[in-house]
Amino acid sequence: MTARSLPGDPAQFYEAHIFVCTNERPEGHPRGSCKPKGSERLRDYMKARAKELGIKNVRVNSAGCLDRCEIGPSLVIYPEGVWYQPQTTEDIDAILQTHMIEGKRVLHLLRQPEDGPKPKK
Q: What's the pTM value of the predicted model, to 2 decimals?
Protein backbone atom coordinates (compact mmCIF):
# COMPACT_ATOMS: atom_id res chain seq x y z
CA MET A 1 0.00 0.00 0.00
CA THR A 2 1.30 3.44 -0.90
CA ALA A 3 0.29 6.56 1.01
CA ARG A 4 -1.16 9.32 -1.11
CA SER A 5 -3.26 12.41 -0.66
CA LEU A 6 -6.99 12.03 -0.88
CA PRO A 7 -9.58 14.64 -1.79
CA GLY A 8 -10.32 16.76 1.28
CA ASP A 9 -6.93 16.13 2.94
CA PRO A 10 -5.37 19.26 4.42
CA ALA A 11 -2.44 20.88 2.64
CA GLN A 12 0.96 19.46 3.54
CA PHE A 13 2.68 21.33 6.36
CA TYR A 14 6.11 20.34 4.98
CA GLU A 15 6.98 19.31 1.44
CA ALA A 16 9.55 16.81 2.71
CA HIS A 17 10.70 15.14 5.90
CA ILE A 18 14.26 13.96 6.35
CA PHE A 19 14.56 11.34 9.07
CA VAL A 20 18.08 10.78 10.39
CA CYS A 21 18.56 7.68 12.53
CA THR A 22 20.08 8.56 15.90
CA ASN A 23 19.49 5.14 17.46
CA GLU A 24 21.98 3.89 20.02
CA ARG A 25 22.23 0.23 20.98
CA PRO A 26 24.47 -1.11 23.74
CA GLU A 27 28.18 -1.13 22.88
CA GLY A 28 29.16 -4.31 21.07
CA HIS A 29 25.66 -5.06 19.77
CA PRO A 30 26.00 -7.15 16.58
CA ARG A 31 23.75 -4.81 14.58
CA GLY A 32 25.58 -1.67 15.62
CA SER A 33 23.82 1.66 15.75
CA CYS A 34 23.89 4.99 13.96
CA LYS A 35 24.55 7.36 16.87
CA PRO A 36 28.12 6.17 17.55
CA LYS A 37 28.78 6.52 13.80
CA GLY A 38 28.18 10.27 14.02
CA SER A 39 24.54 10.52 13.02
CA GLU A 40 23.65 13.21 15.59
CA ARG A 41 26.48 15.43 14.36
CA LEU A 42 25.36 14.89 10.75
CA ARG A 43 21.72 15.62 11.67
CA ASP A 44 22.69 18.83 13.46
CA TYR A 45 24.82 19.90 10.50
CA MET A 46 22.02 19.08 8.05
CA LYS A 47 19.48 21.14 10.01
CA ALA A 48 21.78 24.16 10.17
CA ARG A 49 22.96 23.84 6.56
CA ALA A 50 19.42 23.51 5.17
CA LYS A 51 18.56 26.75 6.95
CA GLU A 52 21.72 28.45 5.61
CA LEU A 53 20.83 27.35 2.08
CA GLY A 54 17.30 28.69 2.45
CA ILE A 55 15.66 25.30 1.87
CA LYS A 56 12.09 25.89 2.94
CA ASN A 57 9.21 23.57 3.79
CA VAL A 58 11.56 20.75 4.80
CA ARG A 59 11.87 19.26 8.26
CA VAL A 60 15.05 17.47 9.36
CA ASN A 61 14.10 15.10 12.19
CA SER A 62 15.79 12.67 14.51
CA ALA A 63 14.47 9.16 14.20
CA GLY A 64 14.76 6.15 16.41
CA CYS A 65 15.88 2.95 14.76
CA LEU A 66 15.16 2.88 11.03
CA ASP A 67 16.23 -0.80 11.02
CA ARG A 68 19.35 -0.25 8.88
CA CYS A 69 22.00 0.51 11.50
CA GLU A 70 24.38 -2.04 9.98
CA ILE A 71 24.91 0.33 7.07
CA GLY A 72 24.52 3.54 9.10
CA PRO A 73 24.43 6.35 9.52
CA SER A 74 21.13 6.12 7.70
CA LEU A 75 18.61 8.72 6.62
CA VAL A 76 15.44 8.59 4.57
CA ILE A 77 13.67 11.40 2.74
CA TYR A 78 9.89 11.34 2.41
CA PRO A 79 7.61 11.54 0.54
CA GLU A 80 9.98 9.88 -1.98
CA GLY A 81 11.21 7.17 0.40
CA VAL A 82 14.81 7.61 -0.79
CA TRP A 83 17.50 6.22 1.54
CA TYR A 84 21.04 7.56 1.91
CA GLN A 85 24.13 6.60 3.88
CA PRO A 86 26.01 9.84 4.57
CA GLN A 87 29.39 9.63 6.28
CA THR A 88 30.60 13.24 6.17
CA THR A 89 29.34 16.80 6.10
CA GLU A 90 30.32 16.84 2.42
CA ASP A 91 27.85 13.97 1.89
CA ILE A 92 25.15 16.03 3.64
CA ASP A 93 25.98 18.99 1.39
CA ALA A 94 25.61 16.75 -1.67
CA ILE A 95 22.23 15.44 -0.46
CA LEU A 96 20.91 18.93 0.24
CA GLN A 97 22.16 20.37 -3.04
CA THR A 98 21.40 17.47 -5.35
CA HIS A 99 18.27 15.93 -3.82
CA MET A 100 16.56 18.82 -2.09
CA ILE A 101 17.51 21.73 -4.39
CA GLU A 102 18.03 20.11 -7.80
CA GLY A 103 15.51 17.26 -7.40
CA LYS A 104 18.02 14.59 -8.43
CA ARG A 105 19.66 11.71 -6.55
CA VAL A 106 23.14 11.37 -5.06
CA LEU A 107 23.81 8.00 -6.63
CA HIS A 108 26.96 7.05 -4.72
CA LEU A 109 25.16 7.56 -1.37
CA LEU A 110 21.89 5.79 -2.26
CA ARG A 111 20.93 2.66 -0.38
CA GLN A 112 18.73 -0.03 -1.86
CA PRO A 113 16.18 -2.29 -0.08
CA GLU A 114 18.66 -5.18 -0.18
CA ASP A 115 21.24 -3.17 1.80
CA GLY A 116 21.00 -4.10 5.46
CA PRO A 117 18.35 -6.36 7.04
CA LYS A 118 15.32 -7.49 5.11
CA PRO A 119 12.11 -5.53 5.86
CA LYS A 120 9.80 -7.29 8.31
CA LYS A 121 6.53 -8.50 6.85
A: 0.86
